[in-house]
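ugh ok fine here u go
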Amino acid sequence: MSKGKYYITTAIAYTSGKPHIGNSYEIVLADSIARFKRKDGYDVFFQTGTDEHGQKIELKAEEAGITPKEFVDRVQGTIKKLWDLMDTSYDNFVRTTDVPHEKQVQKIFKRLYEQGDIYKGAYEGLYCTPCESFWTESQLKDGKCPDCGREVKPAKEEAYFFKMSKYANWLMNYYKEHPDFIEPQSRMNEMINNFLKPGLEDLAVTRTSFTWGVKVPSDPKHVVYVWIDALSNYITALGYGSDDDSLFKKYWPADVHMVGKEIVRFHTIYWPIMLHALGLPLPKHIIGHGWLTMRDGKMSKSKGNVIYPETLVDRYGLDATRYYLLRAMPFGNDGVFSPEDFVDKVNYDLANDLGNLLNRTVAMINKYQNGKLLGTNDANTDFDADLEQTASDVIAEYKELMDKTRFAEALATVWKLVSRANKYID
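structure:
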């Protein structure tokens, strides 16, 4: 009997290039929750996908000498192939170039405009092309983009704006009433202190400097910007606003949005306000995970310090790669990838501890039980009772930690049982 619905999503991957091991971390996290919840009796819907519009795509397609659609088709295929290589059990893979999605984005924009939440104006500020973001002087870090550290340039552009400021007090109160809405707590503190308390500015939600995007039907020189286009995938892919909204009625609101810490602001400020303006319930939890970095900082193609997951899978196997990703990162914080740490965890945890336990157990079953598990338990020593109690405690603790999405701690708990079982055999 089902315990009810459980809807989990990842952020949709941007189709500007091939994902590295750091990008793969999120999909493995979400997949582990989806698998755990299915085992625990929930009706799970696990969604991922690709974000395929924007100026960066338009420029990269031009450099490659192909159309933006050809470019995103190629990269989307690479991303989907990689998520399949990582054996992720997603139920739906959405693309923002899907026609049903684009139609619903236009409907959402129209509704927000007609009810007065969107108005036309002009934006002037400092623009970062790679991040496709405008910044004020005070938001810059050392005169550069606070998100990616690259150069910004002055830019002015006609745009439609969303009245974020209108909902700032409502959102602050929502945070207070739902203290576990954003996890870890440090991310919520960041949203309050860095964005809400200084005063929430209205948000530009269209662009005119490029054409690769969902057009505003009433003003086609404008394309709907990423905030409405990409974020709304979580509801449009369920059929929100369409003739068949059965999935939306069944699974919304989401139980978990799993996102990287660099896009927590978009998911915990812009997205909740959009949903509230549409009269829709908010997701229950938004988890902003940390980054898997290298010793010399964030993985970057320009630094030449990128590790691709297929390299690790080819050399060490899928299970070892997935295990490392779940084990290496403390909840909410960054983790540092090194080849030495990866090999150590594979050798010590999987080969020595778990592998040794498996080999010894199978050898004894073959030696003493003629290779058969008899299904009886006549042993009643203190050692047996202690092992049974350890197993019972570990299962309960593991479930509690997985419900809290504390992956590394949950795996550490499992190893208590592995260690105790090895000791039992000794």
